[in-house]
Amino acid sequence: MAVPHPDELFLAGGWVPADGGRREIVSPSTGEPVATVGLPSEKHALAAIQAAREALSTWAELPVTERVEICGRFCAALEARLEDMGAVWAVESGMPVRYSRTLHRFAAVAAWRTLLESAGHVLCDDSRESALGDVVLRREAAGVVAAVIAYNGPLVTIASKVLPALLAGCPVIVKAAIESQLIMRIIADCAAGAGFPEGALSILCGDAEVGRAVTASPYVDMVSLTGGRVAAQQIIEATRHRFARTHLELGGKSPALILDDADLTVVLKTLVPGATSGGGQVCAALSRILVPERRHDEIIEVLRQAWEGLTIGDPLDPRTQLGPLASPSVVERTEGFLARAVGDGARIVTGGKKPDGFDGGWYFEPTLVTDVARDSELAQNEVFGPVTAVLTYTDPEDGLRLANDTSYGLSASVYTADWAKGVEYARRIRAGSVAVNAFGPALTAPFGGMKGSGWGREAGPEGILEFTELKQILQGRGGTR
């Protein structure tokens, strides 16, 4: 496989030799190596931080229109290479090209087009009157940003996190997942021709040591993470002494609340992809399906047929709906959750093993589990694998309690024949994104979590403001203007 710049890193706007060792990329579909690339070292992390610090005034003081123009060239290059990125992402992560085409075009592209259109407006100065004089409210760049992103949606995270920070005037060091070597090299290749000032953008696909070097630096003003709770706790610990800002988009245990009047034909259209796309390796995945007791058997049978009808196969085949999981550790974690759930009395309706005919690779069947206790590990904790738990409720109020009965609050869906009732229920669910008869979020609007799913918002016009500081300039009565 042809890999752009396999022995180099995109640092401070240019390509430099990698000296942090080598990594063999293994295909999740076959378990066989497909490429070898060079890795960044802590030295590269420190160099990227220094370059970003030096670029802060240059990038932040550019007129917004010029930042939009440069970022627009970056996005145009990305759009021209969507197919390439989908293919290499399938090879290194197992995400099907069918999934990436939908995710990239309807989430990533939509997100950055909204950002480019809205940046000039949201970053304009505002003015207010006061007894002391007129007040100008000014949005200024928060400073150097470390953007830590996961393997399960790198291009979408570039769109929802990195581009808002750049448009706000922040130089960005992207610490990408070590599993995302191929797709991030194409992304970096697109950035290289966009015309960013030296130091405004660096992309490092490194290990945890590289990540710690970036997030612990006193010269990094803000850390934005998409990841898990352990990583978030480590970042909070690394940044608290210097009072650096943090933005955390963490995991979820998102409910799909099926109300008693719901039409299952409507439900299946978005619930099935919402629960199973990406093999469950999606933070917003609908991993808990909440059903009324009286309709449990009916709904379980419909869901079983839908789960068993999914096409498992080569992620490069456009017919494939579920590819392999990203690594053996994801398979082991999934198996462990299932074994413990069954031991606690849960019942596997379908799935629960490696599919027949897939001897190579890290495949696992989409799995549906019922008789799940509300306080069980499977009901409360994120699997990040292809396991969906079905729980029952007695009445609508009990369903709402069950939807909120988790420490997470990232995403949710409500299914009902009564749209107004669905909106009412959506308002009462403690989650950053709730969809009615649909699966979200929409990345043309701000997205983020409540409770243990983190804090802050990314994407949409408001996502740009997340990376700014709000300054008031009081214009006193004396002097001339």
Strand order, main sheet: write it out: 14-15-16-13-12-17-18
User: Helix/strand/pairing class, anyone?
Assistant: alpha/beta
Give the count of helical stretches.
15
CATH superfamily caption of the largest domain = Aldehyde Dehydrogenase, Chain A, domain 1
Please name the CATH architecture of the largest domain. Answer: 3-Layer(aba) Sandwich
Count every beta strand, where a strand is a DSSP E run of 2 or more residues.
20
Beta-strand percent range: 15-25%
* CATH-defined fold name of the largest domain: Aldehyde Dehydrogenase, Chain A, domain 1
Helix content: 25-40%
Radius of gyration: 23 Å
Rounded mean pLDDT is: 96
Overall spatial form: globular
Low-confidence stretches: none
Major pleated sheet: 7 strands, mixed
What topology does this entry show?
Elements: E1 8-11, E2 14-17, E3 22-26, E4 33-38, H1 42-61, H2 64-80, H3 82-93, H4 97-122, E5 126-128, E6 134-141, E7 145-148, H5 154-167, E8 172-176, H6 181-192, E9 201-205, H7 208-215, E10 222-226, H8 229-240, E11 245-249, E12 255-258, H9 264-276, E13 288-292, H10 296-308, H11 328-343, E14 347-350, E15 367-370, H12 377-380, E16 387-393, H13 396-404, E17 411-415, H14 419-428, E18 433-436, E19 454-455, H15 460-465, E20 468-475
Helix pairs in contact: 1-7, 2-4, 2-6, 3-4, 3-6, 4-5, 9-10
Features:
481 residues; Aldehyde Dehydrogenase, Chain A, domain 2; 7-stranded mixed beta sheet
What is shown here, in short?
The protein is of the alpha/beta class. Helices cover 40% and strands 20% of the residues.
